[in-house]
Amino acid sequence: MNKYELAVVVSAKIEEEERNATVEKCKGYITRFGGTITDVEGGEKKKLAYEIQKMSEAYYYFIHFEADSSVPIEVENRVRLMENVLRYLCVRQDEA
């Protein structure tokens, strides 16, 4: 099992309930494909480095999980299609 971090940038134009539902959906994808969530950080509204879809602020979430090497690809394929997700990035964390 490898350790991964999924960074998700969620639209600031939606209500808190929708943001939470978006993050829960991301977590659901991870567990559906056999991953184990270890930690969820973030939820803070931050200024973006550049405008995305005419927005200058968004909410950042960081989901840490353990999974096989095939899981991040499957998760990214699903997150890519989510309407409220502006950007995402899944990276493998090195063993330190």
Individual helix count: 2
As residue ranges, the low-confidence spans are: none
- Distance, first to last CA: 15 Å
Fraction of helical residues: 25-40%
Shape: globular
Radius of gyration: 13 Å
* Subunit arrangement of the protein: single chain
In which order are the strands of the major sheet placed? 2-3-1-4
**Strand and helix order:** EHEEHE
Care to give the gist of this entry?
This protein has 96 residues and is an alpha+beta fold. 27% of the residues lie in helices and 50% in strands. The chain has two helices and four strands, in the order βαββαβ.
Task: Provide the fold topology.
Blueprint lengths: L1 E10 L4 H17 L3 E17 L2 E13 L3 H9 L5 E8 L4
Antiparallel strand pairs: 1-3, 1-4, 2-3
Structure description:
This protein is 27% helix and 50% strand. It is α+β, with helices and mostly antiparallel strands. It has a 4-stranded antiparallel β-sheet with strand order 2-3-1-4, covered by helices on one side. Strand 2 and strand 3 (55-67) form a beta hairpin. The protein starts with a strand and ends with a strand.
